[in-house]
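Tutorial, part two.
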Amino acid sequence: LKEDIRLMEKMLKKNHPSLYWYASPAQIDSAFQRAYSLANDSMDERQFRNLLSETVNPVQCGHTSIRFSKKYNSYVAKHRPSAFPLGLKVVDDSTLVLLSNANRRDSLLRRGMIVTAVDGLNAKQLIDTLHQLVQIDGKSKNFSYQNLSNSFSYYYHIRLGAKKNYAINYINEKGTAVTTKVPASDPSKDT
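Running the prediction step on this input gives:
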């Protein structure tokens, strides 16, 4: 894995036209040193991809991202694992709004409700945690917030993993803070 990191570092430093536009050489070097120190043979592909995404994040280039291998993507397409069931819109650095719910029979969580926390992570913590994996385009956060919103379930899954149920804190239509549990989305079943 460290050889893969070394190759990525070498290729970026040799070929990336805007490697240091938004981060100093010391910041880029620090990101790579962190990756070298955290990489280990027990990492699975999801964990390694997350580490590489965090490593290129300081580059802040909308065209620079890390993808899963074709083999991994093929496996996921074939096995269709359960997923985080809510589509959430990132409004700003600490606000999540419910866009969709894979469980169409759920009458509690409705489009437009503010989600304040998921599994003990408040909205800001959750956005900050997932934001490290998303492409950034310079200092503008709108691009990365839109990417995160478009694929919130995906980023949640690759960062925090799949679960059977999720604890969702939200503000209901009466303005009351409420907590509920929602089951994972199972693509093999029509909910």
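The longest strand covers residues 86-92. In part three we will examine how such features are distributed along the chain.
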